[in-house]
Amino acid sequence: MTTVNLLAYRDPELFARLLRRIIPALEEQVQKLGRRVRIMEVCGTHTVSFSRTGVRQVLADFVELISGPGCPVCVTDQSDIDHMIAYAKRPGTVVATFGDMMQVPGSAASLRRQRAEGADVRVVYSPSQAVDLALENPQKQVVLLGVGFETTAPGVALSLKRAARDGVRNYFVYSVHKLTPPALKALVEDPDHRLDGFLLPGHVSAIIGRRGWTLLELLNQPAVIGGFEPLDLVVSVYRLVQEMKRPVRLVVNNYGRVVREDGNPAAQRLLEETFEAAPARWRGFGMLPQSGLEISETYRAFDARVALPVDRPVTKAVRGCRCGEVVKGKETPLQCRLFGTACTPERPLGPCMVSDEGTCSIYYQYERSHHRDRREEPHEDYALARGWRQPDA
Amino acid sequence: MRIMLSHGDGGSLTHELVAQVFRPVFGDELLEEQGDAAVVPSPSGHLAISTDSFVVQPLEFPGGDIGTLAVAGTVNDLAVSGAVPEYLSVAFVLEEGLEMALLRRIAASLARTAAAAGVRVVAGDTKVVERGKGDGIYVTTTGVGRVPEPGRLGFHRIQPGDHVVVSGGLAEHAVAVLCERAGIRFDPPLRSDCRPLNRMIQDLLAQFRGVRFLRDPTRGGVATTLKEVTLGTGLDIQIEEGRLPVRPEVGGALELLGMEPWYLANEGKVLIVVAPEEAGDVTAFLREYPGQELAAEIGRVSAGHGDLWLKTPYGGRRSLGMLSGAPLPRIC
């Protein structure tokens, strides 16, 4: 295995030099389009990286970054959230969940509220801890809330295999796992589609490989797989813009130190053994074909939907919540009337304000003041101010 | 020997505890009088009073323990208010079953830290709670100090153009405690910066008239403290990420933990807002003190809307709010 000096991807001097080289290409594209380039960063971690490093602002004259459906909790449909909360009310049931589900508001309550009222809800850091819980509480049914993308599902797959091997009969998974490529396909096929390209999630790509995105090549969409350090961000944007200029687009792997052409075959095999692709309902998108992971026939005994059904809870939407539009990149959090007023990380009304990967939560943390700053002060031309670009004659 | 419930009942065992554990280490004549209250001579002028409870887990960590922390925390709160700390009262809540040897160590380190800071422990109390109802030791300290120049420091003194100086490397206390708790071991271990700063701060105030505001960036770190300043003054502060001092080993640990140093607690550092012409000298002055070798100018105050900005090394800047959503409990 080769070691990579990660600090090199954060070198400010190298960053400045690269940026000087890249800016003419970005400018050219901006002139051609007559507007800024619209790039969707699919992954919430990218959204955070752009804000946290300030690279969003450095590129702001050339690139409009639009957050995509990259937060698993956020794209989970309200009816699924209500369903999961319903398990917390089921007698004799222990609900095991990753931390960011706790505060997600259901139609009537959240898991945190249920726990305060006496439900047995445990936060776990890995699915195998949920199997441990089942072994420790043989008289109870333990339900793991399987929320996540291609990155989380292999861990859940392992827990299913372990439960089957060890004959654990009181472990169940409520799977709302989702596959990323079908959601991007839906965005591209939307008649209002107005994105110029996609920055693809590095972690998901590590599992599915560059090959996992063939779908985007068939649709001739400019797309780059990128990492999360400042140099990764700026080079990925550059390569994406270069790809836009080509008549035939390929998915570019700009994260070769982590992502392989074929991804992670071991993880893929695990998924194939334990799950099968199925239609799934996404917040904002509705039903998308072959976009979810259902527990396969062999492991059906562990499928909470089949083995441990609960009454279908009543689902109603939060009035004014724009999470559905935000996950599709149709609106920014700043356009939502609840954002930062009625809806805050302390008292979230929608899932995008809960998760650390949620667009609203990230914008709340990083982008609120900028927004005001931009309105009240003349816009500073960063490239010009730093001498990266010559003033127009 | 372990602590029993009757060590806290006020009877013979309580007296024994005081006689064998506390009196030998504190040994102040006012304590020896064993009155219900310490009667101390009163300086004329203004007094500063500060109180703080300490619930840190683990009780002992590299670079300190709950005893050093209980002195440093309260003494530093007084010092940054422009006070000269004089007296301390200490209240212990002990859990039944606590190792007597551990209590002795902590009492000794508390006494040692107070003596080093030149502060007298003049009053104390001990209670014991049932096993499982406490977590070893909780300590509350209350400090009294005199204020030579009331009104010298404060939000009202801060002006646009002032510089912001931090007295040394960030996040050392939080990282030492977190790593100890998570069982992450470094060699040599990451040490907490926990220490009283009153002598340094007295010297600083004596020498530099341009010091306008002091605060110790404990819970919530430098960012939360500076955000309090911007909200309190309506001014903006911009700090530069590239200038924030962080020891390399602390930086490495933060990388592992996925945390940002400006939101993490310090227990032996002070943030200083100072007139621009004195900022360089103040920084050089601070670097002479132990633990403050990395003192640095980190930012500036400007007219604005009460925002705190972090300028990144890549040319952009982002706003920093108060710490929220990532609770780090039981750190002090």
Report on this model:
The complex is a heterodimer of chains A (393) and B (332). With 393 residues, chain A is α/β, with parallel strands linked by helices. Chain A contains 18 helices and eleven strands. Helix content of chain A is 40%, strand content 15%. In chain A, the strands form three sheets. In chain A, strands 2-1-7-8-9 form a five-stranded parallel sheet. In chain A, strand 5, helix 8 and strand 6 form a beta-alpha-beta unit. Chain B starts with 11 loop residues before the first helix and ends in a 12-residue tail after the last strand. In chain B, helix 1 runs parallel beside helix 4. Chain B has 332 residues and is an alpha+beta fold. A seven-stranded mixed sheet of chain B has the order 8-10-7-11-9-12-13, sandwiched between helices. In chain B, strands 1-6-4-5 form a four-stranded mixed sheet. In chain B, strands 2-3 form a two-stranded antiparallel ribbon. Classes of the chains: A alpha/beta (393), B alpha+beta (332). The interface between A and B is medium-sized, with 28 and 17 residues.
Keywords:
heterodimer, A: 393 residues, alpha/beta, five-stranded parallel β-sheet, four-stranded parallel β-sheet, globular, B: 332 residues, alpha+beta, 60s Ribosomal Protein L30, Chain: A, Phosphoribosyl-aminoimidazole Synthetase, Chain A, domain 2, seven-stranded mixed β-sheet, four-stranded mixed β-sheet, 9 helices, 33% helix
Could you provide a short overview of the structure?
The complex is a heterodimer of chains A (393) and B (332). Chain A has 18 helices and 11 strands.
Low-confidence parts of chain B lasting 5 or more residues at pLDDT below 50?
none
Backbone shape of chain B? globular
Tell me the series of helices and strands of chain B, N- to C-terminal: HHEEEHEHEEEHHEHEHEHEEE
What's the average pLDDT of chain B? 93
Proportion in β-strands of chain B: 15-25%
Helix run count of chain B: 9
Main pleated-sheet profile of chain B: 7 strands, mixed
